[in-house]
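This part of the workshop introduces the protein records we will be handling. A record pairs a protein's sequence with a compact description of its fold. Comparing a sequence with its tokens is the quickest way to learn the format. To make this concrete, we reproduce a full record directly below:
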Amino acid sequence: MLTSPVHNKGSRLFLMLGGFFIANAIIAEFMGVKLFSLEGSLGLHPMDLKIFGNDFSFNLTVGVLLWPVVFVMTDIINEYFGEKGVKFLSYMAVVLLAYAFLMLYIGIKLTPASFWIGSKKSVGVPDMNAAYNQIFGQGLGIIIGSLTAFLIGQVVDVVIFHRIKKITGEKLIWLRSTGSTIVSQLVDSFVVLFIAFYLYPRWANYPPESQWSFGLVMTICVGNYIYKFVVAILMTPVLYLVHNVVEKYLGSALATEMKQQAIKDE
């Protein structure tokens, strides 16, 4: 006899975690078209440093604001649903992201209503259609880079997480969670920018003035990774808090059973 997933605590937990995980991945892509100055947002002066021959400061994509949520969700899913659980949600997220980009592409190609184009002139937007296309029409290089980096980063995260767990057992949650995140985000931070702003523009024969130098790409990669590294450390108490909430929700017996099954399913 089939049992409804909503009546099973383990299934409900997977749905809740998976929903937050995928929602944040998609929202981060849409938000990520804006770059912001971390120092400026905090009321600080930009850093006066040189890296790879380029001026260095923390100019980051807005998508990094949602990254800590993905970090926590990934590690909790890892803990209770194992490698297969994270990979399943990661593959689903990639498919849904590709679907979202396809729908945006279709939306951009539709002919706009004539009255809508100039409807926001009074607030400084002379062409709503052009604004819409610029915000949602991310370049193909960014799409390819984002999807590739997300998938590789998640796979690296789950593999390292379980390798550390096999060695430490149930102890040292911070080590397997933060350790796997630090390594996976090193891969993610460099892959997405390298594909989007170095490889793709050259493959697509962008004009030279539109191509970023290797040094500039690496400089921005370093800034993004430093931010993610620091946040991973700062999020450790939050990870323990969420872990404790999940343990209380599942109960000791079910939580232990799910964690043991997660290891067996690798």
Summary: The first strand starts at residue 35 and ends at 37. The beta strands are 35-37, 49-51, 54-56, 59-61. The longest helix spans residues 67-109.
